[in-house]
Amino acid sequence: MTTFENVRIAKEANIYFDGKVTSRNVLFADGTKKTLGIMMPGEYEFSTSLKEEMDITAGKLEYKLNGQDWQTIDGSGVFYVPANESFQLKVHTVVDYCCSYLAE
């Protein structure tokens, strides 16, 4: 899906790591939420409360889930993060992403 229809978008940005990672909340009529954002080069660690689908639409990064080896996405790709976990990122170029918050 490259576009979203009939959504509300929060004007205020979510800002992390001194502005190196930013996103906007996209709210759907059915109550689901996604964030659309950009990550600048750097190393980051995030924690989840819900299961997340990280859809990388452009850029190059490495990600590491708990108990797994580093994986690379160069261009586009998707990975899933379980609820109540943390994950690490090494962002090599500007990364464009969409994060979907999923019910278990």
Characterization of the model:
The chain is an all-beta fold. It is 0% helix and 62% strand. The protein has one domain: Jelly Rolls. It has no helices and eleven strands. Strands 1, 2, 3, 4, 6, 9 and 11 form a seven-stranded antiparallel beta sheet that branches. A four-stranded antiparallel beta sheet has the order 5-10-7-8, with no helix packed on it. A hairpin with a 4-residue loop joins strand 3 (21-28) and strand 4. The protein starts with 6 loop residues before the first strand and ends with a strand. The model has no long low-confidence stretch (mean pLDDT 95).
* Overall radius of gyration: 13 Å
CATH topology category name: Jelly Rolls
Poorly predicted regions:
none
Distance between the termini: 21 Å
In CATH terms, the superfamily is Jelly Rolls
CATH architecture: Sandwich
**Biggest sheet overview:** 7 strands, antiparallel
Q: Total number of helical segments?
A: 0
Spell the H/E element sequence.
EEEEEEEEEEE
Structural class assignment: mainly beta
Count of the domains: 1
Residues in helix, %: under 10%
Total strand segments? 11
At the first level of CATH, what is the class? Mainly Beta
Which whole number gives the mean pLDDT?
95
Strand content: over 45%
Family: Belongs to the nucleoside phosphorylase PpnP family.
EC number: 2.4.2.1, 2.4.2.2
Enzyme class: transferase
Keywords: Glycosyltransferase, Transferase
